[in-house]
Design goal:
By secondary structure, the chain is an alpha/beta fold. It has helices spanning 33-46, 62-71, 93-98, 116-119, 135-147, 173-178, 184-190, 206-221, 230-238, 244-258, 298-317, 320-327, 331-345, and strands at residues 24-25, 28-29, 52-55, 80-84, 124-128, 149-151, 158-160, 164-169, 193-196, 227-228, 263-264. Helix content is 41%, strand content 11%. A hairpin with a 6-residue loop joins strand 6 (149-151) and strand 7. The protein binds adenosine-5'-triphosphate and magnesium ion. Magnesium ion is lined by residues 62-63, 128, 168.
Length: 346
């Protein structure tokens, strides 16, 4: 893959390269040599059934890489099942994985149910946040990997398993092993092909390319044609991105949506104030109402309060879509309210 050099037009705005496709492998955009090596390794091993363990900080693209492997494997026409190990209800963990026979526990369906292993039969099973898997389930997973077969909860018939396993984690699994929180034998089984995706801070050359790609993507989505100024590109490169590509993507979405002019500049970063000093608000219910001086009409105060909640939620959940889900409103409600306010206040 060739090196991307950002070029600027006569207005000092970054130019979207015409040969953009050359920096794209499936949905992964990159010009960084370490990333290109990783993609090439993944394409080479995709055809085998060897398990892959993808590690890397939050938002670096672990899930995207797992999709690349599946789409380039001989299982590409079969199912790709994604599971977040941290999100499976505690009491249902075994049944979720292995399925169950009719009536095997209180609340079980009378028809029984296929588990995740059976659902990904012949396809790929992506176990996200594998570091969160409790020890008892680790033992059962290990048995499936060793024996190549499993039994539904409450059943006796052995079912032969045929799955390709891809695991991902932003934890250091080896240190979980050292602390006794992750089984050593499972670790070695999963870690046949370890892939570590570098954080954005180690691939600054990707920032202009990704910024252009995301701004173009959101321009299309929101029907705009906003360009990126040279000073903005430089600032994005020097900025710290703890949330990695996800954070850059969200920032570009907000800039495209909220900035007023056709050229997005450093000045517009005030609309995405959180990016350098990311606030970590654990609970919106701890909201500081005392910050509000009661000196305006109630309607105005409520609007300000609402706006603060919206901004904090988008920061906390990482995207307008996710915040909308939690707040039970549509993403366009959030976008509308955010942009309305910004347009009024400037
Ligand atoms: N190289 C890339 N090109 C384009 N989009 C990317 C790239 N890397 C990541 N993204 C986008 O950034 C977001 C985060 O990526 P992804 O979900 O794969 O990260 P992750 O490492 O699984 O994060 P987490 O640890 O939080 O689960 C997604 O919207 C993804 O599409
Ligand atoms: Mg992920």
């Amino acid at each position: 893959m060739k090196k991307f050099n950002v070029l600027f037009d006569e207005e000092n705005c970054a130019i979207m390269p015409e040969d953009f496709g050359e920096y794209k492998t499936e949905n992964i955009i990159t010009t960084n040599s370490k990333m290109i090596d990783i993609i090439n390794i993944c394409l080479r091993i995709a055809k085998s059934d060897a398990p892959i363990l993808i590690t890397g900080d939050s938002g670096v693209g672990k899930e995207l890489l797992s999709e690349l492997v599946h789409k380039n494997s001989k299982r590409k026409k079969e199912t790709f099942v994604k599971v977040n190990c941290a999100a499976i209800a505690d009491n249902l963990k075994e049944a979720e994985f292995f399925g169950y026979e009719p009536g095997s526990f209180t609340g079980a369906s009378k028809y029984g149910k296929k588990g995740l292993i059976e659902l990904s039969q012949n396809g790929t099973l992506f176990l996200d946040e594998i570091g969160e898997m409790p020890l008892n389930l680790q033992s059962t997973l290990l048995r499936v990997l060793q024996d190549g077969k499993f039994v539904r909860v409450g059943g006796y018939k052995e079912i032969k398993s045929n799955i390709r396993l891809i695991c991902a984690t932003n934890k250091n699994l080896k240190s979980l092993v050292d602390k006794g929180l992750f089984r050593n034998d499972l670790y070695f089984r999963l870690n046949v092909i370890p892939i570590t995706i570098p954080p954005l801070s180690e691939r600054l050359d990707d920032i202009p390319l990704l910024a252009l790609y995301f701004s173009n993507y959101f321009n299309n989505q929101y029907n705009s044609t906003k360009k990126l100024s040279r000073d903005l590109i430089n600032r994005l490169i020097s900025q710290s991105w703890n949330g990695n590509i996800r954070e850059l993507k969200n920032t570009m979405e907000r800039l495209v949506l909220i900035s007023l002019n056709n050229v997005i500049t450093i000045g517009d970063l005030k609309y995405v104030g959180s990016i350098s000093q990311k606030t970590d608000i654990e609970d919106l219910s701890n909201f500081e109402t005392n910050n509000f001086e009661i000196n305006k009409p109630l309607k105005k105060l409520i609007e300000e309060f609402e706006l603060d909640i919206l901004k904090r939620s988008v920061d906390k959940y990482g995207s307008i879509r996710k915040a909308a889900k939690v707040l039970d409103v549509t993403p366009s409600t959030i976008s509308r309210k955010l942009s309305k306010n910004y347009n009024e206040s400037s």
